[in-house]
Every structure is written in structure tokens, then in C-alpha cells.
Amino acid sequence: YYARVSAFRTLVQQFLDTTDETGSNPEKQIISLGCGFDTGFFQLKARQCEPKRYIEVDFPEVVAKKADVIANEEVLRQLVKFPPVQDGEFHGGGEEGGYSLVAADLRDLDACIKALSRANYDPSLPTLVLAECVLVYLPSDGSQALLQWAAKEFSQAAIVIYEMINAHDAFGEQMIINLEMRGCPLLGLAGTPDLEAQRSRLTSAGWKRSEGCDMRTIYENCLDPVDVRRISRLELFDEFEEWNLIMAHYCIAYGVNDPQ
Prior knowledge:
Blueprint: H1 2-17, E1 29-33, H2 40-46, E2 53-58, H3 60-72, H4 74-80, E3 98-103, H5 109-118, E4 127-132, H6 140-153, E5 157-164, H7 170-181, H8 195-204, E6 209-214, H9 215-221, H10 225-232, H11 240-248, E7 250-257
Parallel strand pairs: 1-2, 1-4, 2-3, 4-5
Antiparallel strand pairs: 5-7, 6-7
């Protein structure tokens, strides 16, 4: 879990720090699909480095619960600075931007686009789309339609996906069984069984370039080594064989559209 959170935090910060061809840092937008109870916006806001727009999308019942938490926690409420509107949604800031929390079923592309419109999303802004363990639960045709729409809609954008891979071996097969027993079938996994399939999915959807790494590679090569050493000293750990197996069955893949 540390590797996942740290990797996403690093990628988000790299996006926010990216400058244009003139060396200036333009206004930006982050869209989090299937956000759940993620606190990414509030962490950025507390550090005063949030983008102009930060839009979160999830099922109506999740949005209602999250909005209720925000409304009843003083610290979070002060960071948002405006009350929820109808049905527990937050619609941030109009032209001024801000935080939005809107409801939609990601399997329904039209409903998702309407939700983003209620949040005043801006296709002209450099945009980072986050899909953290989300698309794998959608049918492959549904996730592909969403990826194609985003690639076409945002000319300067990146998308970051966190998902399971390598379902073909014994560990992967058991992982699928365990999740299905919990009522969480991985409907999209057959279409993206490995890293190459993850990369191909993005380029076939219209993203100009794509990359991906399994989480073991990311942990060993992409995270801050000082912080990794700090984490490794917090608790004695010797289950490396199982840990390596788990890390090899999750990945981060990303696609980029950038005319520069």
C-alpha cells in the first residue's frame, strides 16, 4: 500500500511541477475516476499546491457518504470552503476552479461526461486523469470507451492507471478467485493480462505514448530511496517471497498526450 500511495503522490507532484515551453507553470486540472475516500485533494490543499480544478467522480452512494464526511469534519470543510449542493455533490468554484465531487456510474460514459460538466471541467487545461484500481472492474468495452473519450477530449493530458496483472499464473488465478468470492469480479482483466496489454490498450485508445511497470520495479527503482529506507525500518519484515509475488501482480501504466 505504501508503494502505491507513494508512487501516485510522486506522479501527481511531477505533473503539478511540469512547466510549459516558456518555463512557466500553467494552471492545471486533475480528474480522479472512482475516487472512493481518497484524500489526495485535501493533502495538496493543505500544502497549498492544489491545481486549479480537482474533480472526483464515483457512484452516487459513495459521493453522498464522502460529502457527509467532508461536511462534518471541520478541517476538511475549511479546505473546501463551500457547502455541498444538491444530492451531496460539490461543484467547485465556476471559473475560479476548486474542488468538485460528483456522482456517476463510470460504466455509463454519457453520465460520466454530464457529471464532469456539472463540475465545470475544462478540456483546455493540462489534465491528469487518475484511475486507481478502477478500470479493471469495468467491462473492457466500457473502460476502452472512457479511455478513448479522454484521449480525444484532452489535448494536453496524462492518465495514470493502477491495476492487477499476470492473472495467468497460480497466484493470479487465486487472486481472481478471492476477489470474486468477495463480490468483486475483475471484468476487465482478461483484456489487459500483462504490461504489454496495458500499454497497447492506451495507445489503441488514442494516447500518443504509453509506459508501465510492475509495482516491484517501481518500489525498487522509482521511489525516493531515503523514504523507502525510512519505511523499511518501521517494522521487521521477512515475508519477501510473498511480497514480491504480490508486487509482481500489480502495475502502474500511464498514457500521455502532449503536442510539445
